[in-house]
Write a structure and sequence with these properties.
Strand order of the largest sheet: 6-5-4-3-2-1-22
Number of strands: 22
Helix content: 25-40%
Bound molecules: zinc ion
Radius of gyration: 21 Å
Largest sheet: 7 strands, mixed
CATH topology of the largest domain: Metallo-beta-lactamase, Chain A
CATH superfamily of the largest domain: Ribonuclease Z/Hydroxyacylglutathione hydrolase-like
Number of helices: 13
CATH architecture of the largest domain: 4-Layer Sandwich
Distance between the termini: 6 Å
Shape: globular
Structural class: alpha/beta
Number of domains: 2
Length: about 425
């Protein structure tokens, strides 16, 4: 039998992940869009293919964002962990609001999202899911709470599809570990790039916060609602600062408290949550601005969310600082701030006079960590995806059979 692996998106790029796996049955792994302006969508599933089973690795929109479009047409069952299902619900609805605000054409609406929500089948790590004669087993991926890698036992061959992975422990997450596989399909976001050690990043971030607060300034920490907000709460806890939390991270907190087995330390997160003051109203926002040392809020790339309201108020005073906590994608407001010191606030591009810092709190494995993970899986075949510099990894894997397919190209393997 020949196994066919085809990326409908997300092969040579970070974003719109969609992998079609065919070997007697057709299964889809992730179906996301790239949140660029305008958004980029994956290819449609070929007309002659009917998708009955989808495996979702995690809730990020570049993996989940086009599921409503697919649900309405193929009506598949969609396997995902409980936190992934709950967070997808929030992110998919939020994405409709963002599209409406930005005036983008909308490939689906409320009704299709509801169809997707009804199609989810909750799964747990380690359980065995059967699709005809294939056995699929989810494993923790270390990326965000609920993120999964999928092991596919297909005859005598074991395939591992990683989705997004992190191999170091963070304050929120336990690391993932390699799993033996004959065929490894792995993300390559940081191919060719290393992260500074997590201890060092934390030290530099905390030193900067201290410096700003000591000089009488306020720190705005824009953070993704999913994972990064909680990581920052854990890091800033117990250091004597008055911390206020605003934005979608508040809702995501509630989900993580509901599914504590998916985070490293529930007690620590509960304590950290107690330590922050939560903004519930416009009045609360005014209070946060007056009393906070640190304001933790969304969105992480400054494209909308309460963060712009706060930045608008503090940006002209050099004592203050905006400390970015994640990668800023090309074309986002956050990238413009880093590159040009300007920001679009409520339709007008304005200069930002306060200090701006960037700290690489990534939830992805860096170059050497990816290499170690690959070697640990001992694969014969490696298929690299989810990266724009995959060659940097391929060059170091010359003792393995490595594929770097483009979108829509088919990798055929005889197994
Ligand atoms: Zn992700
Ligand atoms: Zn991703």
């Amino acid at each position: 039998m020949a196994m066919k692996i085809q990326f409908l998106g997300g092969a040579e790029e970070v974003g719109r992940m969609a992998m079609l796996y065919e070997n007697g049955v057709s299964m889809l792994f992730d179906y996301g869009f790239a949140p660029t302006k305008p958004p980029q969508f994956p290819q449609k599933v070929p007309d002659n293919v009917k998708i009955k089973d989808v495996f979702l690795t995690h809730a990020h929109l570049d993996h989940s964002g086009m599921l409503p479009w697919l649900s309405a047409r193929h009506r598949p069952r969609i396997m995902a962990t409980e936190p992934t299902i709950a967070v997808s619900d929030i992110l998919l609805h939020d994405c409709l609001n963002v599209w409406a605000y930005e005036g983008n054409p909308q490939p689906y609406g409320e009704e299709e999202i509801e169809e997707t929500m009804r199609s989810f089948v909750p799964i747990r790590y380690g359980m065995h899911i059967f699709v005809d004669d294939k056995e699929i087993i989810p494993h923790p991926a270390g990326h965000i709470p609920g993120s999964a890698m999928y092991e596919i036992r297909d005859g005598d061959t074991t395939v591992l599809f990683t989705g997004d992975i992190n191999t170091i422990a963070t304050r929120l997450m336990k690391p993932t570990h390699p799993i033996s596989a004959d065929v490894l399909i792995i993300e390559s976001t940081y191919a060719g790039r290393e992260h500074m050690s997590r201890d060092r990043i934390e030290y530099e971030f905390l030193s900067k916060v201290e410096e700003v607060v000591d000089r009488g300034g306020k720190v705005i920490v824009p953070a993704f609602a999913v994972g990064r907000t909680q990581e920052m709460m854990l890091l800033l806890h117990n250091r004597g600062y008055e911390i206020w939390l605003d934005g979608m991270g508040k809702t995501v907190n509630k989900i993580y408290f509901r599914y504590p087995e998916y985070i490293k330390n529930l007690k620590a997160l509960k304590k950290a949550k107690k330590d922050v003051r939560v903004v519930h109203s416009p009045k609360g926002r005014e209070k946060a601005l007056r009393f906070a040392d640190v304001i933790l809020t969304t969105s992480g790339m400054l494209d909308g969310g309460p963060v712009l309201w706060y930045i608008d108020k503090i940006k002209d005073d050099k004592k203050n600082a905006i400390l970015l906590t994640g990668y800023q994608v090309e074309g986002t407001n956050g990238r413009m701030l880093l590159n040009e010191g300007k920001l679009e606030i409520y339709g007008a591009v304005e200069r930002v006079k306060c200090e701006v810092g960037f700290f690489d709190f990534s939830a992805h494995a860096g170059h050497s960590q990816l290499l170690d993970f690959i070697k640990g899986c001992k694969p014969e075949v490696v298929v690299l995806c989810h990266g724009d510099n995959r060659e940097a990894l391929a060059a170091e894997l010359d003792d393995m059979n490595v594929y770097v397919p483009k979108n829509c190209e088919t990798v055929m393997l005889d197994i």
